[in-house]
């Protein structure tokens, strides 16, 4: 027997339930009485303890028949909001599988939503889709071109997924479509390409280059996602932290040893280390150490139903990543947000 439509409260389905943002969203929705049911869709159960509200359903977005499976779930559970967050947080050598998960997987999600339209669709993306380029302005707004990177499957699969969602939004105006482009997320518990990179004791510095860098604290990021789910905001929004710092200043705060090197040397060395799987960042990542890729977060602040402003500064974010206890009450702010 199919579940009856809930008489009160919303029903939310979340792909990528085992990611940091997916898990945080599940926890927040589970505690919020406005939500009656939350479907955790992933290939393995999330870490959240089993309860009556959150239900795990095994879903593999790389399978060719998953469109129909998702459509059935949308209809059976009367899903109000679909959150698509099944995206990798760091590059992988399994590039074809990653493409099937992110690009083709997004196609499956949108096919299901086209057949059984939820009221709202929220997609998790990244500011990396703008790409790091020499002619980037100081702050990239949401209408900037999604140029990605000519050599990065990790970034370009996310660009293709976003373009699919943009097309879906044009063709299905009855669905509220919201895309959150998160700046690189740092914090004490999250694991991604940047946290792995900054964990190393030494870091390359491209000679003659010291671009500004931008992050968002993991708690600010989780708060923004929960706000996007509850809001009526539509369109793309940059979700960024408070402040920017030069790359070398970031390294100094982290206590990492900068190693200046010519670009050609850095690329050849990184290519070898990536090929032998000794490092987790491919050569294409070096462009983000050369050129600006800093996003403007003003639109997320202006949108009345989203009204997102980061609480934690870039310095506080870096210190939290290092596990250094705050002296300015930042932990209380994060706890209040959570």
Chart the SSEs and their pairings.
Elements: E1 10-15, H1 20-31, E2 35-42, E3 54-58, H2 66-76, E4 81-84, H3 95-115, E5 120-126, H4 153-171, E6 176-182, E7 185-186, H5 193-199, E8 202-206, E9 212-213, E10 216-217, H6 218-230, E11 235-239, E12 245-246, H7 247-254, E13 257-261, H8 263-275, H9 298-302, H10 314-322, H11 330-337
Parallel strand pairs: 1-2, 1-4, 2-3, 4-5, 5-6, 6-11, 7-10, 8-13
Antiparallel strand pairs: 9-12
- Please give the share of residues in helix: 25-40%
Please tell me the CATH architecture by its name: 3-Layer(aba) Sandwich
- The value of Rg in angstroms is 20 Å
Query: Total strand count, please?
Result: 13
Number of helix segments? 11
**CATH class category label:** Alpha Beta
Low-confidence segments, given as residue ranges, are 328-338
